[in-house]
Write a structure and sequence with these properties.
The chain is of the alpha/beta class and about 900 residues long. Helix content is about 50%, strand content about 10%. It contains 30 helices and 17 strands. The protein has an 8-stranded parallel beta sheet with strand order 1-2-3-4-5-6-7-8. The N terminus and C terminus are likely disordered.
Length: about 900
Amino acid sequence: MGKTHLSRLSRTGLAALFIVALANFAAWAWLGRPVSAPDFRGLIHGVSFSPYQRDNDPTAGKNPTPAEIDRDLQLLRGVTKAVRTYSALDGLDLVPYLARPYGLRVTMGAWLDKNHERNEEEIRHVIAAARNNHNVDRIIVGNEAVLRGDLTVDELVSYLKRVRAEVNVPVSTAEPWHIWLAHPELAKNSDFIAIHVLPYWEGIPVDAATAFVLDHYRQVQAAFPDKRVVISEVGWPSDGRTRGDAKATPENEGQFLRDFLNTADKLGIDYYVMEAFDQPWKASLEGAVGAYWGLFDASRQPKFNFEGAIVPLAAWPWLAAAAAALAFIPTIWFLLNIRTLRPTGYGFMPAVMQASAFVLIWVAHVGLSRYMGWTAALGWTFGFVALAMVFLILLAEAIEFVEAVWRQRLVRRFPAASPHPMDRLPKVSIHVPCCNEPPDMVIETLAALRRLDYPDFEVLVIDNNTTDPALWQPVQTACAELGPNFRFFHIDRCEGFKAGALNIALRETDPQATIVAVVDSDYAVDPSWLRSLVPYFASEQVGFVQAPQDYRDVGASPFKDACYWEYAGFFHIGMVERNERNAIIEHGTMTLIRRAALERLGGWAEWCICEDAELGLRLLEAGCESVYVSHSFGRGLMPDNFAAYKRQRFRWAYGAVQIAKRHWRALFSGRGSRLTSGQRFHFLAGWLPWIADALNLAFTLVAVPWSLGLALYPRLVDFPPSVVVGTALALFAFKLVKTLWLYAVRVPASTGQSLRAALAGLSLSYAVGRAVLSGLITSKKPFMRTPKCEGRPAWMNALATAWQEGLLALGLWVAAGAVAAVYGVSDMDSRLWVGFLLVQSVPFASALAIVALSAAPERARTVAPVPADTAISQPAGLAVPVRQTAPTGP
């Protein structure tokens, strides 16, 4: 790389860093922008007072001590004139006594529910508190007992009458405004009307909330003109899910309360703000939002200021710095290591990294700001780790996207070699493993091998574990007829599956052969295959040479069209990019391997069901060079139906997990191998999308019951954080756009073919996810061959192959419908979650669509496939011209 390019890269990189850092700063500053609200300089008339500390929980018998209650009352001196309690038990009967020194009036509450024995205790204690403490100026008997259905109106009236007869202070009960209007008999037996008006629960936007409260206050006043109306609960939460147009944020809490308090003072309204302190224990009863109604947080710190502008995110400069620091190292790594891009690529990737860091820091901030028990904290931790893994997947895919779209030139470009670059072409031993294959198909493969334009080769057919002589004997006969260079071996019982058969072939290989080639038994190779690839072994560093897999039955059916173009993406995009860092995947067909290297490494791994990819990794670990010649030299057959297609991908994904578990030291640390950082990156990044499918499956298994909880218990179960759900939707959109964009740039497929390829890839999500999860907890699944020439299944049999995907899709659709029915579509959290559920269902629904294609009738004609090398559309500036051929297809 020249000095001019380095200086240009430096200017581009610095400009990208500056712009991205500025955007990061601006985004955090926008989140922390001040919010104006009228100043409030007076004392609050009254506040609801629950002195439970962060680790208290009255439902579990964990109550505050008298000293803690006293400290809380002392903190409220100078903030409010009065406090309202909800119970007279568990030490709260001390509140009037402890409040006296601070000049606080007390509205004493008695909690009533279905426990009549405890209700009697509450009544006795509230009466005693009123008699013994002159600062008790009101009593509220029961709180929303009728709303909850714990007491009938008649039962509540009975309690009201008893208390009114025993005390000399006004007595009432507290219910939402509409309960009073529906049951005027409550007013007849109360000295005043204590109403709850909480605009948040009604989905009212914050700027209309005060007017909403006043409207319902006046409505109750008009209904009971002879009674004093007290707003016994009014407030706004600082956190929790959005309800309609009501957003639970600290700035909205401050804005509403400052506006309402000023209005109430002007109009002389009697009220109690809900509430003095955040109550984490309420989350188990009211959902997460129940914990965040306090003027002070659970640590007794004020959540907003009553004068001046409200700053919703005071720590935003520190968060901006943390996000910038998190993105800095990967951005610098990218700018220093990816040096062949056009300027747009250098701007795009740092922006993606900074956006990812922004979301991760924001989610971490939200999580650390919330009150959580150990189970919730554990869930958040797992969720955050999962989100971080999703962003790793995003970054890996973004790097592939950037390099494929904005790369200036390919550095490692290997065309088909000229025929005679070596003094003498070495002997090649071609190994053809087969098991229970149709004999006509295998014989066709052997006939193509016989036509090879190569002077010195042998063909070893290893038929393993085939019990039916009608399948293997015709192949044996064909080998005998093809001549002495074709040798046939039938093994009744072969351990190690395909790897075991290949090891048998290796032991039987002619001692003169220095190159081992492997061809699947369904491949028809071109005569020029060996002549075009063997010369690359002139370099002693080359360990293996790989040509792409290709297929001759494209056009036979809509299903095979979709499969063909789905396969094409990897060979025309992924393998080309991996080749740039000598990190290609070896495949079990159309591959040539240096025999000495293969034997030095101990042959094929019989413990692994993806023995080809595993061998390729071992060769790279040993320091071998790989060569990828992006030209089709042979064409095989694709799976005939979705079941076979799915089994094949399950095997690949499960084998990848086996490889990762066996080679983790070399992949993660590089110890004991000669893998470069680029090779480790490509192997790990190549597996990340499969890990994403496993995460997607896990999320689905959680999302359905979570959604049922939202629908059945809307007050208790909250929506997941909107930033997480929104991020998941954005990542899905990015992946879809990326796939279609890369296909448009690198694969000669039409838009329809690209969409069908995307559909086919999505249809495998469940199989891949199950394979990854299975691979994490097991070590040895049996090798599953991909049968060919089986024909199409009947419709019902075809659908049966995707019943699990269908069940998952149905579960997600039912869950989305249930959430939409309960919450509607006006709620932002609801819209995001319903959208997320529907997006989650896309892979499973895609499986049903592909199943339908696999059962469709075959076409009367087939279409010749496009040679692989025509699929690489070169960015401007590439030194090696590429032959362009118009794609053929349906």
